[in-house]
Design brief:
Layout (H helix, E strand, L loop, with lengths): L1 E6 L1 H4 L8 H16 L3 E6 L2 H8 L9 H24 L5 E6 L1 H5 L1 H16 L3 E6 L13 H11 L4 E6 L20 E2 L4 H4 L14 H12 L4 E6 L5 H6 L6 E3 L6
Parallel strand pairs: 1-2, 1-5, 2-4, 3-4, 5-7, 6-8
Antiparallel strand pairs: 7-8
Helix pairs in contact: 3-4, 7-9
Length: 257
């Protein structure tokens, strides 16, 4: 299988913005094992700005564009250093691809992106993709990595998109506020009722939330690609997800005729 895995900021870092070492080490170990089993893996990784906030000892996520971009520049270096170090321990080569919304909207540039991505997979590398937050502005950005991962999954002709987040999946209500909230194991169609279940983004250092995850689901399922939302605190669940077991919430892909 060809799998796109999106890693959220809350999975990679503590609330301080500093790296969650135990979490990331386990994540890289599981992904390495999945690659060893013959699967192709593409990572769409958040965390650059969050890690930059931590490394620069900023008190909160910056609100002005220059400081956001500065934090992303610092954090992206740290992020790729960590991935390169941990995946090298398991004999896997990582490759960084940074894109902007314009790279994915312009057909010629999108084709170049696809060509590079496919060649990296042929060479056995593990592409790590993020938005180029050091140069992206609101006008040229994708906006969030849930949407970016969906675009990547479609562009890469992936079989599955997995969104690792800080929640187990889509619930009937906010499980942090409602003890009676129930996890929805399967979603066949994204209806208005399903969209109404989405809440706000989860943490200060994150930019996404359930709204962006449902948007991502709409993009990939329309192209026949399944998407699973699962808790990034338990990356070992990836084995069960690949076996088709019930983990998190699976959105079933059905191509639009």
């Amino acid at each position: 299988m060809r799998i796109v895995i999106k890693i959220g900021t809350s999975t990679l870092t503590h609330a301080t913005g500093r790296l969650n070492i135990r979490q990331v080490e386990l994540l890289c170990k599981v992904i390495s094992d999945v690659k060893n089993a013959g699967h192709e893996v593409i990572l769409v990784s958040s965390g650059a700005t969050g890690m930059g906030v931590g490394k620069l000892s900023l008190s909160h996520r910056p609100e002005d564009m220059p400081t956001k971009q500065a934090a992303a520049a610092v954090g992206q270096c740290e992020l790729m250093y960590v991935y390169d170090k941990l995946f090298t321990d398991y004999n896997h080569v990582v490759a960084q691809i940074l894109v902007t919304g314009d790279d994915l909207r312009n057909e010629a540039r999108k084709k170049n992106f696809q060509n590079t991505l496919f060649r990296l997979l042929e060479l056995g590398a593990l592409p790590v993709i993020n938005e180029n937050d050091t140069v992206a502005t609101d006008e040229f950005s994708v906006g969030d990595n849930d949407t970016l991962s969906a675009i990547v999954a479609v562009s890469a002709q992936a079989d599955l998109l997995v969104l690792f987040s800080d929640i187990d999946g889509l619930y009937t209500a906010n499980p942090k506020e409602d003890a009676g909230a129930k996890l929805l194991p399967v979603v066949l169609n994204i209806t208005d009722e399903i969209r109404a279940l989405a809440g706000d983004k989860g943490t200060e250092l994150a930019t996404g939330g359930m709204v962006t995850k449902l948007n991502a689901a709409e993009i990939v399922t329309a192209q026949g690609v399944d998407m699973v939302i699962a808790n990034g605190k338990h990356p070992e669940q990836l084995y069960a997800i690949l076996d088709g077991d019930s983990v998190g919430t699976r959105f079933v892909g059905r191509k639009v005729k």
